[in-house]
Amino acid sequence: MRLRSVPLGVAIFCLVTVLAALTASVSSFAALQPSNIPDWLQRHVGDGEGQISQIVLERARALYQKKVSDGSVSNPCYFAMDATRPGDLGSSVLGQRYYVICEAKQLFRAVSSGHGGGRNLKGVADFSNGRRCAKNFGNAMESELTAGGAYMTAETKTSFKGYYRVGAQNAVFMRTFIQFDGEGEAANARQRVIGGHPAAILKGLCMRKNPQSSYADHDGFVPFGKLVNYAGGRSNGCTSWSPADAEQIIPMVKNSPTTLYIYPESRDIAAVARAKADRQALSAAGAYWNASCLKEIGTPKFWPKKTLEPIIAQYKKDHPAPPPQPVPICKN
């Protein structure tokens, strides 16, 4: 039988077609392969309470492994946060959406964390968030919004905030703040003073005479207030933990930086918004958001700094803050 010659162009076309098919088959096969997440950690993966969603863990691990590889991190633990999950489950129960992962010790811990409360610039722009779920995210200065992305923990600073009453005694309130350094859209974290700290604050401050205190001012006065735990509330964009959890987390990174990955980034928010606009299931679109919060907030929104910072600046100009008032003297 005589073989017919095939034109070179047709042969090349056939070869490209076969290679494309093989590539697609390999890609499909790879997609079916199990994750390299170790079995003990995989057991904590899921969308239920106390679990970590797959995409959040994968990105957090990738960031940590990258920083370990380039020598930026030697800490055996790393952090992740899923800001799409609810922060307040009701009945004084807080949502567990901040994760401490120490793979060498096979340790996984889920704790609560606040999200950025945002702001409502009356008549101009409302990018505020409720206590339970976050709808608005962003990286603008003075926006008080959470910005997702890659972070590293940096220096810690402990500051005296004042005194408060514990029974018949006065106690000193010292609060530690961990500065975060971000990358990409979160690169201005230091300028925004974004970091982690206990969700506790002194409210109702007044000045009380206490010249014996090493913290007294030049007139012998110290601030005095009521200690309030706002672990179930919102933050100014920082990561805030309950005081008890902060006591465990802060020593882990003091003088030993590690990574923190916060989900979602702007690309994730855009993917969810597109899927909702197309009435497409998130899973089919390759997107993820906590189901209960998505039902509550509708469509999430990312406010980029280039858009929001001019709005905030104009609002400040149009609504100048009143001059600061001195802290009043305590009446008793």
Our count of domains comes out at 1
Order of helices and strands: HHHEEEEEEEEEEEEEEHEHHHEH
What overall geometry do the principal axes of the alpha carbons give?
Answer: globular
**Low-pLDDT residue intervals, each spanning 5 or more residues:** 1-6, 8-34
Instruction: Give the termini distance in whole angstroms.
Output: 112 Å
What's the CATH C level?
Answer: Mainly Beta
Report Rg.
Answer: 25 Å
Organism: Mesorhizobium hawassense
Protein name: YkuD domain-containing protein
Signal peptide: 1-30
Keywords: Signal
Write the layout of secondary structure elements.
Elements (H helix, E strand, L loop, with lengths): L7 H25 L6 H4 L11 H16 L8 E5 L5 E3 L2 E2 L3 E5 L4 E5 L8 E2 L3 E2 L9 E3 L10 E18 L2 E14 L12 E4 L1 E10 L11 E9 L9 E3 L1 H11 L5 E5 L2 H12 L4 H4 L5 H7 L3 E3 L1 H14 L14
Parallel strand pairs: 1-15, 8-16, 9-13, 11-14
Antiparallel strand pairs: 1-4, 2-3, 4-5, 6-7, 9-10, 9-15, 10-11, 12-13
